[in-house]
Design a protein that fits this description.
With 130 residues, the protein is mainly α. The protein is built from four helices and five strands; from the N terminus they run αββαββαβα.
Length: 130
């Protein structure tokens, strides 16, 4: 990316190999909106860290199916500490923006995202130095 643009870029893939973390970020692929997939996202990230891919993450709140307010709140809290963090879902699924679940969920998610934003300068430096 740098050779083409002169700037640092981000290559995000779900097709990576051991050691490719020097050049790319890994997304764990389409997951389901359920507690099992929330739990499995932790395992997946730890495994990819062992493979030398530090910038990895899952679709927060799940991609396939409809989430619930409780599941999405807890996943947002966990996902704020994913190295690669995004809320992303399929067309036809219910909205997953924290605001659609009410003021309490929005407040909780806002608080944890503020913590994430405070950590971003450190994460950027670590990933750049990696």
């Amino acid at each position: 990316v740098r050779a083409a643009t002169g700037k640092r870029g981000l290559v995000l893939s779900r097709s990576t190999y051991v050691g490719s973390g020097r050049w790319v970020a890994h997304w764990l692929g389409d997951n389901f909106s359920n507690w099992t997939n929330l739990k499995n996202s932790i395992i997946g990230m730890l495994q990819f860290n062992q493979f030398g891919i530090p910038l990895v993450g899952a679709d927060i709140c799940g991609f396939i199916g409809n989430t619930t307010a409780e599941l999405c709140t807890r996943w947002q809290q966990l996902g704020a500490f994913y190295p690669f963090s995004r809320n992303h879902n399929a067309l036809g699924s219910i909205e997953q923006d924290p605001g659609v679940f009410g003021e309490e969920v929005a407040r909780i998610v806002k608080k944890v995202l503020e913590i994430r934003y405070s950590l971003l300068p450190y994460l950027y430096t670590l990933f750049y130095d990696h």
